[in-house]
Here is the input.
Amino acid sequence: MHVRTLVRGFTAALAVTFALAGGQAAAAPAAPAAEDRTLAPRILTYDASAAAEFRAAVDRGAAIWNESVDAVELRPVAAGQRANIRILADNGWPRAYTSSLGNGTVYIGRQAVTQGYNTVRISSHELGHILGLPDRKPGPCSSLMSGSTAGVACTNPYPNAAEKAEVESDFGGAFARSAGVPRNVMTVD
Here is the structure.
């Protein structure tokens, strides 16, 4: 409070000095309030070149996250660039290995697809793990992170409001959460 009073007094003294010296005094524009400043989304790149027949499902899962949150954006990796997220197809169960918030490897397992689970939901769910979300089992179809417990009839690939808010919180601040993010963790769905 005292510093603000001193700064205002100094600014006023400078304005009077410039006016007396024949110069023109002008106030500097105020810095925007913290709530007025918006942060650009954190860009995460993904490499789905080894996703085989699931490539379109992966792209759709990434697009769903891009439609759902503002603080992070998933983009296909450019040639010669290193991706934050690698996506692979294999014959096992879907799973994600996270190395840090926004980084890791996703496996789109054919075993779940053979059992009838929706490929876009699988992709969106596994990307949710990379974005810091845990499994929430058992859970309803309205919860993306309920995963397989919602059953094969569930095709909802969209995060619910709580899941969106958690990702926004993790990626939205200038100092995104990092200390609590598990490292080198495998999540098998």
Observations:
- Residues 2-20 form the longest helix (19 residues).
